[in-house]
Amino acid sequence: MAEKQLTYDEVLTMKNIFNKILQILLLSVFTMSFSYADAPVSGKFSTALVSQNVLPIDDRGHILRLAEAAGINKGGFLDGWTANNKEIDDLIQGNGTQSGHLVFSRDKENVTVKWQGSITTVMGENKQPMTSFNGNWSFTGGTGSNSGIQGGGTYKGYFTSETEYTVEWKGFRK
User: Residue 36: how many CB atoms within 10 A of its CB?
Assistant: First the structure.
């Protein structure tokens, strides 16, 4: 069988088609890299206890603490949103683990977060306990413009009184 020689116009047409396909592929990859890029997020909120239940476990100072606290977030894409935190702490003399769920809400929208970390209590210079905490968090859902939100990060905080604490958080969202 004899091979058919392509004309100049046929070669030019095939080259144009190849270039168009390449442009579409490159544009798709470029667009995907930006639409799925991680965006930095951060904020800070101070809360006051709404309720608290402390259950003693033994005489070594081992307790379970179930608490709810509320405040207003400052900064970032959740600036001005209400922060409602529900947590359980497993502590021995003020040290141990903590975990919980946090709901940021404004109007009819919300963003939910699951978190876990550790609590450390030391005696300050004035012989008063100083309690701080830190850990990791992840978005678990949202509504409205935050539907399908994903991401996570770290948090750290400290008690400012027996019933109030401040939390700083940072991370990323997709």
Answer: 9
